[in-house]
Amino acid sequence: MSTSFDSYQPIGLQRHRPRARAQYRIRRETLVRILLSVIFYVSLWRATGMWYGLPADFQEGVGKDPMPMRLLLMSLVPLIGLYCLLEPRRVVELLRSASPLVGIVCLCVFLSIAFSVSVTASLRALVAVALLTAGPLLYRARYGAVDTFESLAKFAIATAFINILYTAAFPRFAVMRGSYAGMVKGAFYHKNMLGQFSATNFILLLPALPMWRLRYYDLLRWAAMLLYLVLIVLAKSSTAIILLSIGIAVYYGMSWIQRFPGRIFRSFVVLLAFALLGFVVSVALMGVAQAIAESFGKDLTLSGRTNVWEQLLPLIYERPLSGWGFALFRQPDIMEQYVRLTWDAQSTHNTYIELALNMGIPATIIWTSFVVVRLVAKMTSSPLNQALAITKRKEVVIILLILIGAFTEAGMMLAPFILWPHTVIALTSLGPEFLSRFRKPTQAGAQHASG
């Protein structure tokens, strides 16, 4: 019998130390998952602004942010801070991987704040945008594109049922009055928000993989898609109908583009598709858009937005470099100072004009260029993984709908608005080279972590 020291080592220590470390890793991973999930869903909910009792006539609540929404936003500060303490290396690597164009835009934002007409208002808006950016971005960087989109889909399903039930239970709040009388807004602040959100989430809920058998979750998914169609009709949003039509066409068109071999050839196909789409829109679809708008009693400018733009465009050239201040033209009192119409214009009704007014022409061009470059890069990629390829299509659709919707609606980009978390997730491009620097949380997570 051996009398070496090793033969007298307590067997329990040899067995329990590795097990204790494994249990610690599991508990830590569970904590991180719960924490990031809370941050993620709080960010989504806060961005929508949905709440009980929002006025049926939006003029009654202009500029009023319900206290629960403020508390939700502020709750993100300690939650995000805790996550940064748990995984500082991942956060640092995420910041280092940011595009240089994003860094330049950030510098332009700080410059616009320095010259802002209202520094306090600009700083508040910057904090809100930063917090609503951090949550989705951290979740996307931790669990990959496929997992993030599945979590986003769960939120979309819940939101569809919430808005239908809320409208049925509280029509005095959910159905608008005033100039929008009879149009459903659900738990949102305005019916246009509900329309945009419904159109985007319908595309988001399209099945990620072919279904050979239906599960209860799949039935919920299809039911939510049907409810979103109902909500679009009840909201009487012509913009939402046009965006939904374009989104479905692009989603299935992307499946055709991804089949072509070689990224150069796919790039050529994408450019050709853009040219064809522009021609079709300018020649044929204008008549369809006009018919849709007229069916809701509007013109093609969608509620006379050109009257607002004519008064705002000269203001851009008064401060072309720094703008008037980050997010300043999202303030109703600012709009009242510069826009004179027969009706109260509470919005610029155009994100590009709004960005130019807020932070100047150079920053707007740089930001738009960044978004377009990301869009083209995602359109010309063709992942081998089927789930990831379908997720890429949805990213392309979301970015494209944001770019198109930004022509008629304000706050579609760089604003604490309903679809900003969707935009952040879709624009993020973190491939396997980023995620491979860290230990994979689970074997299943490793399969979804690329992209």
TrEMBL record:
It holds the Pfam family Wzy_C. Its main location: membrane. InterPro entries: O-antigen_ligase-rel_domated (IPR007016), WaaL-like (IPR051533). The chain crosses the membrane at residues 30-47, 67-86, 98-115, 151-173, 193-212, 219-235, 269-293, 355-377, 397-420. It is a multi-pass membrane protein. The keyword Nucleotide-binding does not apply. It comes from the Bacteria. The keyword Signal does not apply. GO terms for molecular function: ligase activity. Residues 223-367 form the O-antigen ligase-related domain. It is found in: Membrane. Keywords: Ligase, Membrane, Transmembrane, Transmembrane helix. This is O-antigen ligase family protein.
